[in-house]
Protein backbone atom coordinates (compact mmCIF):
# COMPACT_ATOMS: atom_id res chain seq x y z
CA UNK A 1 0.00 0.00 0.00
CA UNK A 2 2.97 2.32 0.53
CA UNK A 3 2.23 4.08 3.83
CA UNK A 4 5.10 6.09 5.34
CA UNK A 5 5.31 6.28 9.13
CA UNK A 6 7.03 9.64 9.43
CA UNK A 7 7.73 9.36 13.16
CA UNK A 8 8.53 6.12 14.95
CA UNK A 9 11.22 5.23 17.46
CA UNK A 10 12.51 1.93 16.12
CA UNK A 11 15.67 2.42 18.18
CA UNK A 12 13.73 2.07 21.43
CA UNK A 13 12.33 -0.85 23.43
CA UNK A 14 10.24 -2.82 22.87
CA UNK A 15 10.44 -2.20 19.10
CA UNK A 16 14.19 -2.61 18.67
CA UNK A 17 14.23 -5.95 20.49
CA UNK A 18 12.11 -7.48 17.69
CA UNK A 19 12.76 -5.15 14.78
CA UNK A 20 12.26 -7.82 12.13
CA UNK A 21 8.85 -8.69 13.54
CA UNK A 22 7.88 -5.03 13.85
CA UNK A 23 8.79 -4.38 10.23
CA UNK A 24 7.03 -7.54 9.03
CA UNK A 25 3.82 -6.53 10.82
CA UNK A 26 4.13 -3.05 9.39
CA UNK A 27 4.56 -4.42 5.86
CA UNK A 28 1.47 -6.60 6.31
CA UNK A 29 -0.48 -3.40 7.15
CA UNK A 30 0.90 -1.60 4.11
CA UNK A 31 3.48 0.46 6.00
CA UNK A 32 6.77 0.07 4.18
CA UNK A 33 8.87 3.15 4.97
CA UNK A 34 9.86 4.78 8.24
CA UNK A 35 11.42 8.00 9.52
CA UNK A 36 13.20 7.39 12.83
CA UNK A 37 14.03 10.56 14.78
CA UNK A 38 16.67 10.80 17.45
CA UNK A 39 16.16 12.72 20.68
CA UNK A 40 19.78 12.95 21.89
CA UNK A 41 23.22 12.07 20.55
CA UNK A 42 23.01 8.36 21.37
CA UNK A 43 19.57 7.81 19.86
CA UNK A 44 20.49 9.92 16.83
CA UNK A 45 23.52 7.71 16.22
CA UNK A 46 21.34 4.62 16.62
CA UNK A 47 18.82 6.00 14.12
CA UNK A 48 21.62 6.61 11.62
CA UNK A 49 22.91 3.05 12.08
CA UNK A 50 19.42 1.67 11.42
CA UNK A 51 19.10 3.79 8.30
CA UNK A 52 22.46 2.53 7.04
CA UNK A 53 21.33 -1.08 7.51
CA UNK A 54 17.78 -0.79 6.15
CA UNK A 55 17.00 1.16 2.95
CA UNK A 56 13.37 1.64 3.98
CA UNK A 57 14.42 3.53 7.13
CA UNK A 58 15.46 7.19 7.14
CA UNK A 59 17.06 8.87 10.14
CA UNK A 60 16.61 12.26 11.76
CA UNK A 61 18.98 13.67 14.37
CA UNK A 62 18.47 16.18 17.17
CA UNK A 63 18.11 17.02 20.84
CA UNK A 64 14.59 16.78 22.27
CA UNK A 65 13.70 19.27 25.04
CA UNK A 66 13.14 16.44 27.52
CA UNK A 67 16.75 15.32 27.01
CA UNK A 68 18.37 18.69 27.57
CA UNK A 69 20.93 17.94 30.24
CA UNK A 70 23.08 19.75 32.76
CA UNK A 71 25.77 20.54 30.17
CA UNK A 72 23.30 22.41 27.96
CA UNK A 73 21.92 24.28 30.97
CA UNK A 74 25.28 25.34 32.41
CA UNK A 75 27.53 25.65 29.36
CA UNK A 76 25.16 26.10 26.46
CA UNK A 77 24.24 23.72 23.65
CA UNK A 78 26.77 22.95 20.93
CA UNK A 79 25.35 21.66 17.65
CA UNK A 80 28.78 20.52 16.44
CA UNK A 81 28.34 16.78 17.14
CA UNK A 82 25.07 16.82 15.23
CA UNK A 83 26.61 18.81 12.38
CA UNK A 84 29.41 16.25 12.08
CA UNK A 85 26.89 13.40 12.22
CA UNK A 86 24.85 15.02 9.45
CA UNK A 87 27.95 15.37 7.27
CA UNK A 88 28.82 11.70 7.66
CA UNK A 89 25.40 10.05 7.91
CA UNK A 90 23.10 12.20 5.74
CA UNK A 91 19.90 12.27 7.83
CA UNK A 92 16.69 13.50 6.20
CA UNK A 93 15.79 15.94 8.99
CA UNK A 94 16.81 17.62 12.21
CA UNK A 95 14.58 16.25 14.93
CA UNK A 96 12.99 15.68 17.03
CA UNK A 97 13.42 19.15 18.50
CA UNK A 98 11.07 21.67 20.03
CA UNK A 99 9.51 22.96 23.23
CA UNK A 100 7.93 21.00 26.06
CA UNK A 101 6.31 22.96 28.88
CA UNK A 102 4.63 19.82 30.26
CA UNK A 103 7.87 18.62 31.83
CA UNK A 104 8.22 18.77 35.61
CA UNK A 105 11.56 20.58 35.65
CA UNK A 106 12.77 22.74 32.78
CA UNK A 107 14.05 26.15 31.76
CA UNK A 108 12.01 28.03 29.17
CA UNK A 109 15.09 30.08 28.27
CA UNK A 110 17.31 27.04 27.71
CA UNK A 111 14.64 25.21 25.72
CA UNK A 112 14.19 28.18 23.41
CA UNK A 113 17.94 28.63 22.96
CA UNK A 114 18.51 24.94 22.15
CA UNK A 115 15.62 24.98 19.67
CA UNK A 116 16.91 28.10 17.91
CA UNK A 117 20.41 26.68 17.63
CA UNK A 118 19.03 23.53 16.01
CA UNK A 119 16.86 25.57 13.65
CA UNK A 120 20.02 27.41 12.63
CA UNK A 121 21.66 24.04 11.99
CA UNK A 122 18.71 22.95 9.85
CA UNK A 123 18.99 26.14 7.84
CA UNK A 124 22.74 25.63 7.39
CA UNK A 125 22.24 22.04 6.22
CA UNK A 126 19.09 22.77 4.16
CA UNK A 127 17.19 20.10 6.09
CA UNK A 128 13.59 20.08 7.33
CA UNK A 129 12.81 19.81 11.03
CA UNK A 130 10.63 17.49 13.10
CA UNK A 131 9.01 19.56 15.84
CA UNK A 132 7.77 18.31 19.21
CA UNK A 133 5.58 20.72 21.18
CA UNK A 134 3.50 20.53 24.35
CA UNK A 135 1.83 23.53 26.00
CA UNK A 136 4.02 26.01 24.14
CA UNK A 137 2.49 26.47 20.70
CA UNK A 138 2.30 30.26 20.79
CA UNK A 139 5.98 30.64 21.67
CA UNK A 140 6.88 27.93 19.18
CA UNK A 141 5.19 29.92 16.44
CA UNK A 142 7.08 33.08 17.39
CA UNK A 143 10.38 31.20 17.20
CA UNK A 144 9.65 29.34 13.96
CA UNK A 145 8.60 32.45 12.09
CA UNK A 146 12.11 33.87 12.63
CA UNK A 147 13.48 31.05 10.46
CA UNK A 148 11.72 31.65 7.16
CA UNK A 149 14.04 29.33 5.24
CA UNK A 150 13.22 26.31 7.41
CA UNK A 151 10.18 24.09 7.12
CA UNK A 152 9.20 20.72 8.55
CA UNK A 153 6.44 18.95 10.43
CA UNK A 154 4.68 19.66 13.71
CA UNK A 155 4.47 16.07 14.87
CA UNK A 156 1.58 14.66 16.95
CA UNK A 157 -0.04 18.07 16.69
CA UNK A 158 -2.57 18.91 19.41
CA UNK A 159 -2.94 22.69 19.29
CA UNK A 160 -6.27 22.99 17.47
CA UNK A 161 -7.20 24.32 14.03
CA UNK A 162 -6.65 28.05 14.61
CA UNK A 163 -3.05 27.59 15.69
CA UNK A 164 -2.53 25.02 12.94
CA UNK A 165 -3.33 27.69 10.37
CA UNK A 166 -0.42 29.77 11.69
CA UNK A 167 2.04 26.90 11.26
CA UNK A 168 0.63 26.08 7.84
CA UNK A 169 1.21 29.70 6.81
CA UNK A 170 4.89 29.20 7.69
CA UNK A 171 5.06 26.22 5.34
CA UNK A 172 4.88 23.46 7.94
CA UNK A 173 3.22 20.09 7.61
CA UNK A 174 0.99 18.59 10.33
CA UNK A 175 1.49 15.02 11.54
CA UNK A 176 -1.46 12.83 12.54
CA UNK A 177 -1.25 9.54 14.38
CA UNK A 178 -3.14 7.72 17.10
CA UNK A 179 -4.91 10.87 18.24
CA UNK A 180 -6.96 11.13 15.05
CA UNK A 181 -8.43 7.65 15.70
CA UNK A 182 -10.01 8.73 19.00
CA UNK A 183 -13.64 9.90 18.66
CA UNK A 184 -13.24 12.25 21.66
CA UNK A 185 -10.04 13.92 20.38
CA UNK A 186 -11.99 16.96 19.22
CA UNK A 187 -9.11 19.37 18.53
CA UNK A 188 -7.08 16.82 16.61
CA UNK A 189 -10.00 15.74 14.47
CA UNK A 190 -11.09 19.32 13.79
CA UNK A 191 -7.55 20.13 12.71
CA UNK A 192 -7.49 17.11 10.41
CA UNK A 193 -10.38 18.66 8.48
CA UNK A 194 -8.70 22.01 7.75
CA UNK A 195 -5.16 20.99 6.81
CA UNK A 196 -4.61 21.25 3.02
CA UNK A 197 -4.13 17.89 1.31
CA UNK A 198 -0.50 18.66 0.47
CA UNK A 199 0.44 19.25 4.13
CA UNK A 200 -0.76 16.10 5.90
CA UNK A 201 1.56 13.37 7.18
CA UNK A 202 0.93 10.06 8.92
CA UNK A 203 2.87 8.88 11.96
CA UNK A 204 2.62 6.75 15.08
CA UNK A 205 5.34 8.00 17.47
CA UNK A 206 5.58 4.28 18.26
CA UNK A 207 5.82 2.94 20.85
CA UNK A 208 4.87 6.01 22.86
CA UNK A 209 1.50 7.32 21.65
CA UNK A 210 -1.44 4.95 21.64
CA UNK A 211 -4.70 5.11 19.71
CA UNK A 212 -8.39 4.39 20.17
CA UNK A 213 -7.61 0.67 20.36
CA UNK A 214 -3.89 0.50 21.24
CA UNK A 215 -2.48 1.38 24.64
CA UNK A 216 0.24 3.99 25.09
CA UNK A 217 3.61 2.25 25.00
CA UNK A 218 2.32 -0.59 22.82
CA UNK A 219 1.93 1.04 19.42
CA UNK A 220 3.89 -0.04 16.36
CA UNK A 221 4.31 1.39 12.85
CA UNK A 222 1.58 -1.00 11.65
CA UNK A 223 -0.87 1.24 13.50
CA UNK A 224 -0.30 3.92 10.86
CA UNK A 225 -2.96 2.07 8.88
CA UNK A 226 -5.61 2.87 11.51
CA UNK A 227 -4.60 6.54 11.43
CA UNK A 228 -4.89 6.52 7.64
CA UNK A 229 -8.33 4.91 7.82
CA UNK A 230 -9.57 7.47 10.38
CA UNK A 231 -8.17 10.35 8.35
CA UNK A 232 -9.83 9.01 5.21
CA UNK A 233 -13.18 8.71 6.96
CA UNK A 234 -12.96 12.21 8.43
CA UNK A 235 -12.08 13.84 5.13
CA UNK A 236 -14.45 11.81 2.99
CA UNK A 237 -11.67 10.15 1.00
CA UNK A 238 -10.87 6.57 0.12
CA UNK A 239 -8.05 4.84 1.94
CA UNK A 240 -6.09 4.67 -1.32
CA UNK A 241 -6.46 8.41 -1.86
CA UNK A 242 -5.34 9.13 1.69
CA UNK A 243 -2.30 6.89 1.41
CA UNK A 244 -1.30 8.38 -1.94
CA UNK A 245 -1.67 11.90 -0.57
CA UNK A 246 0.28 11.39 2.65
CA UNK A 247 3.01 9.31 1.01
CA UNK A 248 3.58 11.98 -1.65
CA UNK A 249 3.84 14.57 1.12
CA UNK A 250 6.37 12.47 3.04
CA UNK A 251 8.45 12.00 -0.08
CA UNK A 252 8.39 15.74 -0.73
CA UNK A 253 9.37 16.79 2.79
CA UNK A 254 11.96 14.08 3.44
CA UNK A 255 13.46 14.04 -0.03
CA UNK A 256 16.98 13.71 1.37
What does this structure look like?
Helix 7 crosses helix 8 and helix 9 crosses helix 10 (239-253). The chain is globular, with a radius of gyration of 17 Å. It has one domain (3-253): Alpha-Beta Barrel (TIM Barrel), CATH 3.20.20.140. Helices cover 43% and strands 15% of the residues. The chain contains ten helices and eight strands. An eight-stranded parallel beta sheet has the order 1-2-3-4-5-6-7-8. It has helices at 19-28, 41-53, 70-75, 80-89, 108-125, 137-144, 161-169, 186-194, 224-235, 239-253; strands at 3-5, 31-37, 57-61, 93-100, 129-134, 152-154, 173-176, 200-202. The chain is of the alpha/beta class.
What descriptors fit this protein?
single chain; 256 residues; eight-stranded parallel beta sheet; alpha/beta; TIM Barrel; 8 strands
SSE series: EHEHEHHEHEHEHEHEHH
Classify the secondary structure makeup into a structural class: alpha/beta
Query: Major sheet, described briefly?
Result: 8 strands, parallel
Q: Please indicate the percent range of residues in DSSP E strands (runs of 2 or more).
A: 15-25%
- Write out the CATH superfamily name: Metal-dependent hydrolases
The CATH architecture category equals: Alpha-Beta Barrel
> What is the mean pLDDT?
97
Total helices: the number is: 10
Cα-atom radius of gyration: 17 Å
Percent range of helical residues: 40-55%
Distance between the termini: 22 Å
Show unreliable segments.
none
In the CATH hierarchy, the third-tier topology is known as TIM Barrel
How many E-type strands?
8
Report the CATH C-level class: Alpha Beta
Amino acid sequence: MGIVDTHCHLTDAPLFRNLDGVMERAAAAGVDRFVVPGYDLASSRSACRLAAAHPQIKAAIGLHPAWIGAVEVTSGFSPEPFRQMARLRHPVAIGEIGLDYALEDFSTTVQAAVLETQLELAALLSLPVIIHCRRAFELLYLILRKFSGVTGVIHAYGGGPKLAEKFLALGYYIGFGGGVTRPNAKKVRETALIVPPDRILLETDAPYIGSHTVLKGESEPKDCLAAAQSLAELRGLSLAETVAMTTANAETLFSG
